[in-house]
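Preliminary data (for renewal application), flavin mononucleotide complex.
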Amino acid sequence: MNERKTFVEVVKNRKSIRKYKDENIDIEKIKEIISLSSNAPSGGNFQNWHCIIIRNKTVIEKMRESVEAIYKKIIGNAAPSYYTFFTEAPVVLAVIEKPYYSSMDEILEKTDKERNYIRKFIVNPGLQGVSSFITHILLAVENEGLGACWMTGPLIAKEEIEAMLGVRKPDNLVALIPVGHKIERKSKSGRKEISEIITIID
Ligand SMILES: Cc1cc2nc3c(=O)[nH]c(=O)nc-3n(C[C@H](O)[C@H](O)[C@H](O)COP(=O)(O)O)c2cc1C
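Predicted structure:
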């Protein structure tokens, strides 16, 4: 029987999972997770995200090969597992950021290029929306008792992986998320004290 977890349990128990059982996940379960995660907020409710669900082992292996090749070119030796362990998962999600345009960007583009640049590329509301979607995916995965990890390391081979997956500009591959039946981690990564991460203005 699947016991219902509280929100606090889901948030506290979620960890990056990098080891998975050799067991498939039903595509309907993955669709449910993505559908639930599409409740995430986004600038102007643009929902400027798209998810490529990769289940083909040959494609996943080719992705690993390009990460290895680029890593070797840059560093000179084999890539550490935190760049390549996504090959262990039965499903890899490739999260795509779609373009986000706001009417304010249009106005600022004409009236104040500097302010437009800062808001569009430094504040980057488009990427913030996608990040929120990814966070929802990780929590939805945990809620299903499955495991996942947000990965940007493999995107040293971003161009090569985009070409493989047919992602073309202006679409932008921003993360990979391997999802699988988790081999549970015992330890949880430490967290900063609340006093270190807040400032109160009374
Ligand atoms: C933007 C981003 C990129 C990440 N990229 C990787 C990665 O490439 N490989 C990896 O093993 N973990 C990656 N992680 C996972 C972090 O290492 C992990 O979230 C952090 O150490 C805290 O651990 P926890 O998720 O278990 O709480 C990434 C996390 C974020 C948010």
